[in-house]
Fold this sequence. Notes:
Elements: E1 4-7, E2 12-15, E3 23-28, H1 39-57, E4 61-66, H2 73-82, H3 86-103, H4 119-131, E5 135-138, E6 141-144, H5 160-166, E7 181-186, E8 201-203, H6 205-216, E9 221-227, H7 231-246, E10 252-258, E11 261-263, E12 266-267, H8 278-284, H9 287-295, E13 303-304, H10 307-322, H11 335-356, H12 361-380, H13 385-401, H14 417-432, H15 436-448, E14 451-456, E15 459-464
Parallel strand pairs: 3-4, 3-9, 9-10, 11-13
Antiparallel strand pairs: 1-2, 5-6, 6-7, 7-8, 11-12, 14-15
Helix pairs in contact: 1-9, 2-3, 4-6, 6-7, 9-10, 11-12, 11-13, 12-13, 14-15
The protein binds one RNA strand through helix 1, helix 5, strand 9, helix 7 and strand 12.
Amino acid sequence: xxxxxxxxxxxxxxxxxxxxxxxxxxxxxxxxxxxxxxxxxxxxxxxxxxxxxxxxxxxxxxxxxxxxxxxxxxxxxxxxxxxxxxxxxxxxxxxxxxxxxxxxxxxxxxxxxxxxxxxxxxxxxxxxxxxxxxxxxxxxxxxxxxxxxxxxxxxxxxxxxxxxxxxxxxxxxxxxxxxxxxxxxxxxxxxxxxxxxxxxxxxxxxxxxxxxxxxxxxxxxxxxxxxxxxxxxxxxxxxxxxxxxxxxxxxxxxxxxxxxxxxxxxxxxxxxxxxxxxxxxxxxxxxxxxxxxxxxxxxxxxxxxxxxxxxxxxxxxxxxxxxxxxxxxxxxxxxxxxxxxxxxxxxxxxxxxxxxxxxxxxxxxxxxxxxxxxxxxxxxxxxxxxxxxxxxxxxxxxxxxxxxxxxxxxxxxxxxxxxxxxxxxxxxxxxxxxxxxxxxxxxxxxxxxxxxxxxxxxxxxxxxx
RNA sequence: GGCGACGUGGCCAAGCGGUCAAGGCAAGGGUCUGCAAAACCCUGAUCGGCGGUUCAAAUCCGCCCGUCGCCUCCA
Length: 465
């Protein structure tokens, strides 16, 4: 069975057929860097990280480009408020975002282009669009002529006539048609500006992605991704510009869009102000837990971010981690060992089938929980050695495809470990002497410090958290 | 008003016409344990509502109710 993905352009699930066999050219829209990124941005980055990891698991070489929009109105406004240089402000948030990417265990993109470093290419493309009749200059601005693009609206399913009727479009005397959008904006005094045939100015939002695509991936790409709030107008306009410029369609074969993260019943966004920054989240929670939350639902559906769903994700993670505990015996053959081997193979097939179905991560997790149960059952049956190790390796590999680290908090307790061991040893002596009240008070005391003790047939183990 | 997504047990969620409607968390009962913890076993939903198509529907169609996104900057 082949990998199937939902394509916003066709509104259907389709088999993935790449331009070049075994290679995927993927462009994902990154953030506009005018403020600290929030967990909604993280969700999008995680979704496409999982997609990228899975494509690589399936043997594709992935060229992954993620851009930074480092010049736009909001950056300029923000910089002015703070009396800071806009370019420097953007730079600061880019650095912060890249730290977040690392902290969230997101694989680095192949290239991270920035709008401000590709201005010349944009000017060239805009000039060409004007020459071909797809755009027109107006008083220092340049606009794209939507009427010239015969299939404008095909991504978002809108018709020019209907959008007109919606009447939510501002009337601008400069524009020939209300839906025409800016390719180039003339600079007002004090704004960052680059020279152009139309006077000093800066690029419009949509043109930068078109040009960075052309520059880093070529005239046609396989996957173009982003949040579903970008479908219109951003991606619609990108298609209009790029296909008008190259004369080739489709610009991107598959358009993938993730659903929005919901906080308190509505979309988390900078504009609404109902946000939790990645920094704040990571101060209290693990990167794995946020990823787990994302994995628990379909990437295209809205995802509810709440204390309850986060706690749920964290406990589910514990379930996965538990299966990585050491074996309790050394049975390498027999019915239990054979059953484990069979369950490993079954889990792998189920995992791949789920992921092949438009990245059904919730279904893939179900396959992993089956593997967890198989491992735990095998441990109870004293299976050990190679069969047990191989099952755990498989679990690590598949959770790795989802980008989970399954790191425990124990590293943080490293310094305290000898002291905890000492207490555990003392408690063991007390238990032998049937001094249970004292033994229990040690256990309770450690529990208050966040250390959990577990008495098993092989002795007592402890873990943080 | 237009376009799109969606509504499955307390929470999250799979399911895409046909064996018992996956799985995780939570809850209850058990096994194990000095007691716990962990692990394992067992227990619960007829699928927003109403019609229709079909031998057969959570799964297809229609209408209604509700939620979310986009239509303006936005992952």
